[in-house]
Every structure is written in C-alpha cells, then in structure tokens.
C-alpha cells in the first residue's frame, strides 16, 4: 500500500533522512534539520535558509565533516524512493529553464544559450507524483 504524500517539511525530512548512518546520532539529527531547512526555502542560499548565524555555521560544519558524504546522505532517500516506486505509477513532469549570464563576463564552463551569443546553462526541474 502506498503511503500518503508528505507535504509537511519536518515529517518529510525525518522520513527521508533519519536513516542516514554517520555512526554519530548528532550528525543524523543535523542532516534531518538541514533537509527541513532546505525544503522550506529551496531557492535560497544557506544563510537565508537558516534563522540564525549559529545554525548556518552548523550546516557548514556538517558539510565539511569527513563522516558526511553524498552517498551517506542520499542512500536512505534513494532506498525509500525505490521502495515507493515499486508500489505505484509515478508521473514525472519536467521543465527546462535557460539561465543566461552577461556576455561581458567570461565564466568558465558555461555553454552557449539563446542565439548562440549568450552564455549560460539549462536547469531541468522534475516533479514526481505517485
């Protein structure tokens, strides 16, 4: 049976990241908090996602911790997502946005955009619904 869609960010963060294993419960608790903050304000920078400077510094320390890796953070989320995907059909809605930057500044690794005279990149957004 498929579980219901979780829209409340605290519950979503716990459901997707509380199984992260860093061999330190404090780090797991912090990654859940981090996911919650990021989900609440996904388009903001880390200083704007946090309410206090101490919270921002804690996230920076977390990301700099040798025990915290991309694999350790994303693995429980992927396991949960694969499990849910076996139970239902999911609709994937995609939108690609072109981000263009001034041609007056040369920025390494940006590609051509628009009329091939601009520079930028494409950002693809996917929404999943079960």
Notes on the structure:
This protein is of the alpha+beta class. It folds into two domains: 9-87, Serum Albumin, Chain A, Domain 1 (Orthogonal Bundle), CATH 1.10.246.40; 91-129, no CATH class. The protein is 45% helix and 20% strand. The protein has helices at residues 9-17, 25-40, 46-49, 53-64, 70-87, and strands at 91-101, 111-113, 118-129. It has a three-stranded antiparallel sheet with strand order 1-3-2, with no helix packed on it. A hairpin with a 4-residue loop joins strand 2 and strand 3. It is extended and about 50 Å long. The mean pLDDT is 79.
Structural class: alpha+beta
- Stated plainly, the CATH topology of the largest domain is called Serum Albumin, Chain A, Domain 1
Name the helicity range. Answer: 40-55%
The CATH architecture term of the largest domain is: Orthogonal Bundle
CATH class of the largest domain: Mainly Alpha
Topology, number of strands: 3
CATH superfamily assignment of the largest domain?
Tn5 transposase, domain 1
How can the largest sheet be summarized?
A: 3 strands, antiparallel
Number of helices: 5
